[in-house]
Design goal:
single chain, 437 residues, alpha/beta, Alpha-Beta Plaits, Rossmann fold, 2 domains, seven-stranded parallel sheet, five-stranded antiparallel sheet
Length: 437
């Protein structure tokens, strides 16, 4: 894709930063986490944040006062690459070759014609790291004996609901649309490929090592695996596959934001985002808030950097977590301890099993995968079940049931337990009628 060459050249800086974060001492990490409790960051009019972004691209939102995008392009010698939607005041602009995104954004800060401007940040699946690969491909499906099913009390949950009437949008690498275990979930549901801009979000191998890490199609099967976990929790729920990441697991916030808006407009009750970035995008946060306001629960992965630094969009404002309809999910192992790779902090909402999760994988089979991407769809499936049972609840109330029914982790994980949100999800308990107000 257009941003992968840049990721090879410049993204190595970000990867080195993440490695440095992993070596930070525990005392410093907890000190940083306490700082996040003090409040959220304020947006500047233009901001490049700390993450990698697509070169020579900026996102702008015009003031609602008859401002013309042609006038904006004339000022900055830019071109319109894409309008967010036919009636939108949000645009993706291309800057001239050799231009500096930061310099342009600095200029845009004082431009009264713009509500905001920001880079087109690169987002990716947390499992893009070489430590995280699918394994154990076979025809053996997961069963009710899997530790995740027991840990989450799926037997009790399924005695109350299988998720009928709920729709979960999975924004990922696409999916195997004809996988035998998932065909019924996909049937009759809107779907789209925002990477190729067509109506076929099928997982596909391209046979290239586009990010230069030595492995071809690193994240092939990721979306199918995530969708299978949703099906495992809520087998009668519909799944809306939206392709926003390529086979290497990379995407950008403009594309992902468009997909969030699409899911919101086309009947999703839950949106699963097993992806993220070190940078907070104002556009993506705007689309997520809009979806929540429309009644959609948004569930996002906390990331795999073993760090307390916020991972977006899961972290919201980067401050203390709350029941606001955006659920940040981290991972625990079968012993209810933080997974070695999993992020943690005051911004995390809840934990779910993420180690050695068996789920659907192309073609027509199953495989194991580990990561917060795997923990996230367990909670998306939980939100679908809560919606199916308590359809009148708003997203904040759905999240409230997920949080208040979670099992505390202080006894099983005294080191990190207080930094894993409300605790480990308990799906059976979350459907109880009187447990939560």
């Amino acid at each position: 894709m257009h941003y992968l060459k840049y990721y090879r050249e410049v993204g190595a800086v970000g990867r080195r930063r993440l490695q440095q974060h992993r070596t930070v001492t525990a005392a410093l990490v907890f000190a940083l986490c306490s700082l996040f409790l003090l409040g959220s960051y304020d947006y500047a009019g233009a901001d490049t944040g700390v993450g990698d972004f697509v070169p020579h691209q900026v996102i702008v939102r015009l003031q609602p006062t008859g401002v013309s995008i042609d006038d904006i392009n004339a000022t900055y010698d830019s071109t319109t690459l894409q309008r967010f939607s036919d009636d939108s005041d949000i645009y993706l602009l291309g800057l001239p070759t050799g231009s500096d995104v930061q310099v342009t954004l600095d200029q845009m800060t004082s431009d009264e014609r713009l509500l905001y401007s920001e880079p087109n940040y690169i987002a990716e699946s947390p499992e893009g790291d070489a430590r995280h690969r699918a394994w154990g491909f076979s025809s053996d499906a997961p069963s009710s004996q899997d530790y995740s099913a027991t840990m989450l009390d799926l037997a009790t949950a399924h005695s109350m609901s299988l998720g009928e009437g709920a729709t979960v949008a999975v924004l990922d690498t696409g999916a195997q649309l004809d996988h035998p275990a998932l065909q019924d979930n996909f049937e009759g549901v809107k779907h789209y490929d925002f990477v190729s801009d067509d109506n076929n979000p099928t997982e596909r191998r391209v046979g290239l090592d586009e990010d230069g890490d030595g492995t071809k199609d690193d994240l092939y099967g990721h979306g199918t695996h995530v969708a299978g976990i949703v099906d495992f929790v809520a087998p009668s729920a519909k799944i809306m596959p939206l392709r926003v990441l390529d086979t290497e697991g990379y995407g950008d916030v403009f594309t992902i934001s468009r997909a969030v808006s699409y899911a919101d407009r086309n009947g999703a009750n839950v949106i699963n985002l097993s992806l993220g970035s070190r940078s907070r995008s104002r556009l993506l946060q705007q689309m997520i808030k809009g979806a929540i306001a429309d009644g959609v629960v948004v569930v996002a992965a906390a990331g795999n950097s073993n760090s307390s630094l916020p991972h977006y969009p899961a972290a919201g404002n980067g401050a203390m977590s709350s029941a606001d309809g955006l659920v940040a999910v981290t991972s625990v192992n079968m012993y209810s301890k933080k997974s070695g790779y999993a992020n943690y902090g005051a911004w995390v909402d809840v934990a779910a099993p993420g180690d050695d999760i068996r789920s659907t994988f192309p073609v027509d089979g199953y495989a194991y995968w580990s990561g917060t991407s795997m923990a996230t769809p367990f909670v998306s499936g939980e939100a679908a079940l809560v919606h199916a049972v308590y359809g009148s609840l708003d997203p904040a109330s759905v999240e409230g049931k997920i949080r208040c029914s979670a099992q505390p982790l202080l006894l099983t994980d005294p080191i990190y337990g207080a930094m894993l949100g409300a605790g480990r999800a308990d799906i059976g308990a979350s459907l109880a009628p009187r447990l939560c107000s």
